[in-house]
Design goal:
The chain is an alpha/beta fold. The chain has a domain at 11-174 and 209-234 and 268-313: NAD(P)-binding Rossmann-like Domain (Rossmann fold). It is built from eleven helices and 17 strands. The protein has helices spanning 20-32, 46-55, 74-80, 96-101, 103-123, 143-157, 184-191, 211-224, 240-247, 292-302, 324-335; strands at residues 11-15, 38-43, 64-68, 86-89, 128-132, 168-172, 176-177, 196-199, 205-209, 230-233, 237-239, 252-255, 267-269, 277-279, 283-286, 305-306, 313-314. α1 (20-32) packs across α8 (211-224) and α9 (240-247) crosses α11 (324-335). The longest helix is centred in the N-terminal third of the chain and has 21 residues, at 103-123. The two termini are 21 Å apart. Residues 337-343 have low confidence and may be disordered.
Length: 343
């Protein structure tokens, strides 16, 4: 999918720009707009920025900038956002066990950091803001998911305080990104060397999206989002047992039990969301509550259709599942040096 969003003339700022998504997003933007006016990579880790600059350097891409900073630092954000018109918010703390052990650190980054960014965007009259969310923010049962739900609410509600500014805040919510750092696929690939793959529950399912599909969704949102919505992609699920079979059929598949804060099936649209959700074809949009005008606009502009009342979208009842062979093919693409964006 291509976008007519004018990347070449944009001034884009991405938080968490050295992460898995950030690198894939930067790669895509520079492929399509190598002479982009400005692309700022904002993150905390100077080593990751140094390593990323070896691949994406200012000699080749003069509009590229690397800014050290933390979204917990509102003053730094205000200064860094001067002259920016597009923000993609990918920075977050996201490891579920770490959140249970260090709860307020997650609150400070995922919630207070989100509000800092919102305030700085409003003060600098940024035009488009898209924040990345997670399936764990739907009916959360762990602290990480709860902080991301709160973040989602902050971004969608920010449209209510924009005043006369031409600023739109939107959210994209999707499932596990295949191959991203800390996710199950690289974990299983490493554990394969031991001959044992730990299975939490044989009934467990997960959503799956590629890094590139996540990037395309954000670009779509930058061009089309009206403000206040949470966009959800239609993506396949997989069974954790099928993933283990795809990665290590010769390994022992040892059931170890579900971890604290974990779900058997992940959700992205709950039954309570259904009253405000429309089907856009490739994506769903959970619209602001209550906003009949927003629903009417979406239906008129995109041919969207309201979902049935009580509809839920979860990885267990998803009509599309990846087979063992399909999973194996996708994993092979991740592990080959020439294949796809690297996590």
């Amino acid at each position: 999918m291509t976008t007519t969003f004018d990347l070449q003339r944009s001034h884009i700022f991405i938080t968490g720009g050295t992460g898995s998504f950030g690198k894939a997003f930067v790669r895509t933007v520079l492929e399509r707009a190598p002479n982009i006016e400005r692309l700022v990579i904002f993150s905390r880790d100077e080593l990751k920025q140094f390593e990323m600059e070896q691949e994406f350097n200012r000699a080749k891409y003069p509009g590229l900038r690397y800014f050290l900073g933390d979204i917990r630092d509102e003053q730094r954000l205000r200064r860094a956002l001067e002259g920016i018109d597009v923000v993609v918010h990918a920075a977050a703390l996201k490891q579920v066990p770490a959140a249970e052990y260090n709860p307020f650190e997650f609150v400070k980054t995922n919630i207070l950091g989100a509000q800092n960014l919102i305030e700085a965007c409003l003060d600098n009259r940024v035009k488009r803001v898209v924040a990345l969310s997670t399936d764990k923010a739907a009916a959360p049962i762990n602290l990480y998911g709860a902080t991301k739900l709160c973040s989602d609410k902050l971004f969608t509600a920010a449209n209510n305080i924009r005043g006369l500014r031409d600023t739109r805040f939107s959210v994209v919510r999707y499932g596990n990104v295949m191959g991203s750092r800390g996710s199950v696929i690289p974990f299983f690939l490493e554990k394969k060397k031991t001959g044992v793959l730990p299975i939490t529950d044989t009934d467990m399912t997960r959503f799956n999206i590629s890094l590139q599909d996540g990037v395309e969704m954000v670009l779509w949102a930058l061009e089309h989002a009206q403000g206040g919505e949470i966009l959800v992609p239609k993506i396949p699920s997989y069974r954790i047992t099928d993933l283990a079979q795809a990665i290590g059929p010769e390994c022992e598949h040892r059931v170890i039990g579900i971890r604290p804060g974990e779900k058997i099936h992940e959700e992205m649209i709950t039954t309570s969301d259904s009253i405000n959700t429309v089907d856009l074809g490739r994506y769903f949009a959970i619209l602001p509550t209550p906003d009949k005008e927003a629903k009417a606009r979406y239906c008129e502009k995109y041919g969207a259709k309201p979902v049935p009342l009580g509809y839920a979208y979860d990885s267990g009842t998803n009509p599309e599942f990846l087979s063992v062979d399909e999973l194996r093919g996708l994993i092979d693409g991740l592990t080959k040096p020439a294949g796809g964006a690297q996590a």
